[in-house]
Design goal:
With 825 residues, the protein is α+β, with helices and mostly antiparallel strands. The protein has 28 helices and ten strands. The protein is elongated and about 130 Å long. Keywords: Cell membrane, Membrane, Signal, Transmembrane, Transmembrane helix.
Length: 825
């Protein structure tokens, strides 16, 4: 019942919303107001007459002349509508008439063929005349198409100029300080309305009342009643029926999983918005065959149509995301009591925005005085701010109650907390601005809050739908995934990688689109425009004299923040979703993540400088100074930075490798831009500059053979020991140890025979070089026990006294003569 009342309310104020759309197909634009006769009195031109382009050129010149002298938003919006209509007619004239005629002329010339060469026999006089006539017609059509293109481009430039004028006008209004909402000046337009405003409003009300009455003519009353009833049924009963059908299809046709929930939420939004547009189209058809709208009424209903669709989208998003009827199908992770508490606010907010949009469109269409416009904006900002504030307070009460009961209201994240805090500050800022007299600033903040929520909710819904769709389509357990795998010969992990990559691409494109939508503004000006307007009041002229542009500062801050968030988000997506589904090692994954983060941060820095207005051709002196600094004090830093890039690209060592460098042996834990972190066996960390890893000899233990380590022990026995018995003991000790691999087989080598004894070397392999030292220690203990049990001793060389030496000389076993130190006298 609430939806029926809301639709009838919107139908009353938007009953003429789409009359121009349908009237363009069923009637002409012959009825124009007297104040625009110099621009559009000619109406649509005939496409088959040469006068058509002249009439369009005259209308374009008139629009351009009036735009240069317009002083109000109503006049600019009216001229914008007229210029768009003229541009559409020029495009239709060019594409639907001139270009087909040119194509037919080309075809006729092709039929005639090329003119005969001189001396090759002439052609008949009739054919020659026809060829000349077709060539002249072709030249004339080319010139007319070129002229139509120039007219269209000129009108596009006029639209861009009008948009800039509107933007500048809005910035000026934001900087304007008026009376506070608690002052008498603010309420004076209601208590004592101005006579001109009163007359204009009464005239506009008569136009609105006269327009619906035209459909109740005796010859058109039945058809109009049927169309209006169908429109009402489409917006009420049709919406519910279609949503139930969509829920049934999602439940029975889609595969099990999260895709059902996201598809149901999206279908709810699309059906609600689609039925609203369809209902308005039917109302427009009902009004189309009668009286055409005046320019002021036309601009009013066009703006109201956009507001109606936007409000329908807000209500539909609230219903789809809260989903109080089926809590188990709810997409956001919020508790059911919190969802039920927030359920009334989206339709209430949509209704208030429709009401506020209607008031502002009336102000623009009637061109009311500044006090009445300020009053309207103040009331709108106050109502919307109080509504959003009430929803925040109610949500906080529910969260407090759930927390007291030991339950969680929602899955809290840093981003969600920042959004909640920003909205709370925006509501407080709106109320403060209204009390201080900055009504236009308050109106801007409220509209931007709604726009931000609209974009973010749409982004959330689309990202969830794209992710769930990719996961379901390429899931190896579903029929679609099996069919794709069999068709393309892909394995299961290939399908998972494809799904992850496609999901990431869709998410990235949606985030970029959302950022563009947020920064360019939707229901008001941009945040940079607001900041520039405020700074202009506080001394923006002095800042501009120092070549400091406030808009550039805000845009640079937003670009830097958004860029850093995107780099971190994409890096986290690589780390947690894409790379784990590949066959890359941990070291390679860490290297790729580091390389991506460095490149991403560099691009963000360059883009931020570009937004600030920095031009690289103006930085020659900075580059010169840097070259001198690099030559003296920064050469080591630059050398290490370049070495770090080489390490990440060439990968002679990577994260996770076990290396030995200048007596330092350990595992690489991180490769930074300047230095590399090496963790030693005692868990301490050594910071090694990257240039040393490039310029010095580095032993990479795990590079050639990442899965095996070598345990080698060399023992020297006396000459009276049986070497075969010693060989068996060594081999059995290695073979019986559980950590020694069976392949390759351990081997014992008779490596040396000297006067001191025989040397046997035993070698075995373990699964990792990092455990080689521990296994070697265990084997030494085992071998010592086995040799003692077999009564086999190691060689014990002794010092030898050689004849012919002098007293005081000492000979070691290696035969080198050394003199003892002399005593002091």
């Amino acid at each position: 019942m609430r939806q029926v009342i809301a639709f009838f309310l919107s139908l009353i104020v938007a009953v003429s919303a789409l009359a121009p759309v349908a009237a363009g197909a069923a009637s002409t634009w012959s009825a124009r107001s007297e104040d625009t006769a110099d621009v559009s009195a000619d109406g649509p031109v005939e496409a088959d007459t040469p006068q058509a382009l002249g009439a369009l050129q005259a209308r374009a010149d008139g629009i351009r002349q009036r735009a240069s002298s317009a002083t109000s938003d109503a006049q600019l919006l009216e001229l914008d509508t007229l210029s768009r209509q003229a541009a559409t007619e020029a495009d239709s004239l060019m594409t639907l008439s001139l270009q087909p005629m040119l194509a037919r002329t080309h075809a006729q010339l092709d039929v005639l063929g090329a003119p005969p060469a001189a001396g090759a026999g002439g052609e008949t006089l009739a054919v020659a005349r026809q060829r000349v006539a077709l060539a002249n017609q072709q030249a004339r059509l080319d010139a007319e198409i070129e002229q139509a293109g120039r007219i269209k481009d000129g009108l596009s430039n006029v639209n861009a100029q009008i948009a800039r004028l509107l933007h500048e006008h809005l910035k000026d209004q934001l900087a304007l300080r008026t009376g506070s909402i608690i002052s008498a000046d603010f309420w004076r337009p209601v208590v004592r309305p101005d006579e001109p405003d009163y007359r204009r409003l009464r005239a506009f009300a008569r136009q609105i009342r006269a327009q619906p009455g035209s459909i109740w003519q005796p010859h058109h009353r039945l058809a109009a009643a049927v169309l209006l009833l169908i429109a009402v049924g489409c917006a009420t009963i049709g919406t519910r029926v279609l949503q139930r059908i969509a829920a049934s299809i999602c439940l029975r046709r889609l595969p099990e999983g999260r895709l059902r929930r996201s598809a149901l939420a999206m279908s709810t939004v699309l059906i609600a918005v689609g039925t609203t547009i369809g209902a308005l189209q039917l109302v427009g058809v009902a009004l189309a065959s009668q009286t055409a709208l005046s320019p002021s009424l036309q601009s009013f209903v066009n703006g109201l149509f956009r507001h109606t669709v936007t409000c329908a989208l807000i209500a539909a998003l609230g219903e789809a995301l809260l989903c109080t009827r089926h809590p188990s199908w709810r997409l956001p992770a919020i508790a059911d009591p919190l969802a039920r508490a927030l359920r009334p606010f989206p339709p209430i907010l949509a209704g208030l925005l429709l009401f506020s949009g209607t008031l502002e469109q009336i102000d623009l269409a009637v061109d009311t005085s500044v006090p009445l416009t300020i009053f309207t904006r103040g009331i709108v900002a106050l109502i919307v701010a109080l509504t959003i504030g009430a929803s925040l307070m109610r949500a906080n009460r529910v969260r407090t109650a759930l927390a007291a009961a030991g339950e969680s209201a929602e899955a809290r994240t840093t981003l969600a907390g920042l959004i909640h805090a920003a909205v709370s500050l925006a509501v407080a800022g709106t109320l403060i601005a209204l009390l201080c007299g900055y009504v236009s600033v308050a109106r801007f903040i409220t509209y931007e809050m709604v726009w931000f929520h609209l974009v973010l909710c749409t982004l959330y819904l689309l990202t969830r739908l794209s992710h769930d769709a990719c996961e379901s389509i390429f899931c190896p357990a579903h029929r679609s995934g099996k069919a794709i795998g069999q068709l393309l010969g892909l394995k299961d992990f290939h399908l998972e990688q494809i799904a992850t990559v496609l999901s990431g691409l869709c998410r990235s494109m949606l985030i970029v689109a959302a950022v563009v939508a947020l920064l360019t503004g939707g229901l008001g000006t941009t945040p940079a425009g607001l900041f520039a307007s405020i700074v202009e009041v506080l001394g923006g002229g002095r800042l501009r004299a120092l070549n400091i542009v406030p808009e550039h500062l805000v845009n640079a801050a937003l670009t830097c923040g958004v860029g850093l968030y995107l780099v971190r988000s994409v890096r986290g997506w690589f780390d947690t979703q894409l790379l784990p589904k590949t066959a890359m090692s941990d070291g390679m994954r860490a290297s790729l993540l580091t390389l991506f983060a460095n490149i991403g941060y560099l691009l963000v820095a360059l883009q931020t400088l570009s937004v600030l207005g920095v031009r690289w051709h103006n930085l020659a002196w900075i580059v010169s100074a840097l070259s001198v600094g690099i030559g003296f004090g920064l050469q080591e830093i630059v050398k290490n930075f370049i070495s770090g890039l080489i390490l990440l690209a060439e990968r002679p060592v990577k994260v996770g490798d076990m290396i030995s460098l200048a007596g330092i042996e350990g595992d690489i834990r991180r490769i930074n831009v300047r230095a590399t972190e090496i963790q030693l066996a005692d868990k301490s960390t050594v910071i090694v500059p990257n240039s040393q890893l490039i310029a010095q000899n580095v032993r990479n233990v795990t590079m050639g053979n990442t899965s095996q380590g070598v345990v080698t022990i060399a023992l020297t026995f006396s000459l009276d020991v049986d070497p075969e018995q010693a060989q068996d003991i060594l081999f059995n000790a290695y073979a019986d140890h559980p950590s020694i691999l069976e392949h390759p087989v351990p081997c014992v080598v008779f490596s040396q025979l000297t006067a001191d004894g025989i040397t046997l070397t035993v070698t075995g392999y373990v699964k990792s070089p990092r455990i080689a030292a521990e296994i070697k220690s265990q084997l030494l203990f085992t071998l010592l026990k086995c040799l003692r049990a077999a009564n086999i001793s190691l060689s014990n060389p002794r010092a030898l006294v050689v004849q012919g030496t002098r007293a005081g000389d000492f000979f070691s076993l290696d035969g080198n003569r050394r003199k003892p130190p002399q005593r002091a006298a």
